[in-house]
Amino acid sequence: MSKKCIYCGCEIDESSVIDFCEKCGKGVWGERMFNTILKNMEEARERGDLYGENFQGKIE
Asked: How many Cβ atoms from other residues are within 10 Å of residue 44's Cβ?
């Protein structure tokens, strides 16, 4: 099963920490905010904060 953008439905990388494509993300929040969101989400994943113990979709 492939991961799709929640806005336009295009395919996005399965390892993406966000559920939308770059084009839609920049369209919704603008380039600077999109880049900040992406950076913060990637840092949260590295720290292990993105998926808590109770998260049902935890990636093994």
From this structure: 13
pLDDT digits (tens, 9 = 90+) for 9-59: 999 999 899 999 999 999 999 999 999 999 999 998 888 887 655 455 545
The rounded distance, in Å, linking the Cα atoms of 55 and 44 is 14
The three-state secondary structure class of 11 is strand
Residue indicated by tokens 């492939």: 2
Instruction: Please tell me the total number of residues recorded for the chain in this structure.
Output: 60
Cα separation values, 33 from 42, 57, 59, Å: 14, 26, 26
- Is there a contact between 2 and 11 (Cβ–Cβ < 8 Å)? yes
